[in-house]
Design brief:
Na(+)-translocating NADH-quinone reductase subunit F; alpha+beta; Trna Endonuclease, Chain: A, domain 1; six-stranded mixed β-sheet; 119 residues
Length: 119
């Protein structure tokens, strides 16, 4: 069995978020799935400000919505210059048998994602 890399786990999180955003009626102006490059999604919807979506995928399924507050302050300044809003998507992905085990390719996993945190 092949263990998923950090990038592959991040891509899983990106897919989950992308599908939810599409269902919400957003258009993607830009998508960046490279690890540690932000924002991951730049959204457009007629009549609304631009939205930057930050996606963090973690194996912490108890509190995946935790983020680095100091780093977020820096990003908030960037978004303000762009007249954009920020949404944070914290996604926990863990092996469905045990959180102690890694996530394997083509094996069941558990997803913890409630909703976006509007910063």
């Amino acid at each position: 069995m092949k263990v998923l890399t950090k990038q592959e786990i991040h891509n899983l999180g990106m897919n989950i978020v992308g599908k939810k955003l599409q269902k919400m009626g957003y258009e993607f102006v830009a998508i960046n799935s490279e690890l540690k490059k932000h924002p991951q999604f730049v959204l457009f919807k007629k009549g609304e400000p631009t939205i930057f979506v930050l996606v963090k995928t973690t194996n912490n399924i108890q509190s995946p919505q935790d983020y680095d507050v100091l780093w977020m302050e820096t990003f908030k300044a960037h978004a303000k210059k762009q007249n954009a809003k920020i949404w944070f998507a914290g996604i926990g992905i863990a092996n469905s048998e045990s959180v102690e085990l890694p996530v394997f390719k083509d094996q069941p996993y558990y997803i913890a994602f409630d909703d976006f945190i509007k910063i």
